[in-house]
Amino acid sequence: MSGDAAKILNVPIAGKSYDIVIGSGLLLSGLERVSALIRKGEKTALISDENVWQRYGYAVETGLNALGIATEAIVLPPGEKTKDIGHLSLVYDRMAAAGITRKGCVIALGGGVVGDLSGFAAATYMRGVDFIQIPTTLLAQVDSSVGGKTAVDIAAGKNLVGAFYQPRLVLIDPDVLTSLPPREFAAGMAEVIKYGAIASPSLFALLEQTTVPSMTEIICSCCAIKSDIVAEDEFDNGHRAILNFGHTFGHAIEKRYGFSKYNHGEAVAAGMRIAAHIGEKIGMTAPGTAARLGSLLDRYGLTATESPVGLIEHIKSDKKGEAGGVNLVLLKALGAVVCVYKRFEELEVLLDD
Fold first, then answer.
1. Which CATH number is 113's domain given?
2. What is the pLDDT of residues 335-347, one digit of tens each?
3. Does 176 score more than 90 pLDDT?
């Protein structure tokens, strides 16, 4: 991958357009793009987790310092349990103690947990400071770093406290994926497969080929799909809902086990299986779609399956729920989706049957 020219995708949101820059070596060579967006003389919060910091944090901090950017490194414990109000409060306190002002900046260096928490901190600290994403996991590179959804979890459920807050830049270096444990890489592939399933039969078919596709090509394809969807529906009032394919059930599965048994991608993969089977059961999804989706998930190590029985209680507390029911994202066929409203009573029958 070395030597690839950077690819630039623009997210064309009125008044807050930004670039997604993708390319080999950008973790360090792209820091000039980062520094160009930071006001001179202002301090920047560089937020990461312990695992990412040990591998990449010092080099990124040194690179920023060399470009004249003063940083306050805030290194958090890894894992979903960090994405809570307590750690958010810690971040606020560290930023305030470091003297970060309204003209400062937050840089998220890490996966989805770091990105979500850092983005919410940026959205709310002094009523909003600049925010830059440097995602280091596949899941974050293809999904969570793009689109401006930021949040923390509370006891009642996942991502229930958050804000829509777009970054100024998303800097993606596919080379960092070589350091991911297989399980984390597979988790990211769940989101990649989701994009193929909901919007791109050609991407889905590419993933089914025997040769391994270029990760740069995969990341660009997913980011382009999400960019188009977000530009059309920034605040998730309509079309953006298709990105939730598998997530209503996936979040319920995560909550079933207290966010301890599965990571997010594994839970979403299991949720996509349930959604595809329900779609076929009610005649909404073309026969055979669930089997083809399941085979591709298996191929990338996403073999977990979960019984849908009893999930309804966890679905009721999900933020996607509406009064008395939920909009399910189902496939018509690969590359085509439909949203179907089901009252909780109807859905319970489908899940428990």
1. 3.40.50.1970
2. 999 999 999 999 9
3. yes
Asked if residues 199 and 225 have their Cβ atoms less than 8 Å apart, the reply is yes
d(CA 59, CA 71): 12
For position 320, what pLDDT does the model report? 67
- Tell me the average pLDDT of the chain: 95
Nearest to 157 by CA among 87, 248, 78: 248
Let me know: does 64 contact 71? Beta carbons within 8 Å. Answer: yes
Q: What is the DSSP letter of 213?
A: P
Tell me the H-state helices in the chain: 26-29, 31-35, 50-52, 58-66, 85-97, 112-124, 138-139, 182-199, 201-208, 215-232, 247-256, 264-281, 289-299, 312-315, 344-352
Mark whether 75 and 190 lie in a shared domain: no
| pTM (2 d.p.) | 0.94
Reply yes or no on whether the pLDDT at 308 is more than 50: yes
Cα–Cα nearest to 255, from 301, 320, 300: 320
Question: How many Cβ atoms from other residues are within 10 Å of residue 282's Cβ?
Answer: 13
pLDDT of residue 1: 36
- Same domain, yes or no, for 195 and 166? no
The pLDDT value given to residue 325: 94
> How far is Cα 188 from Cα 174, in angstroms, rounded to an integer?
12
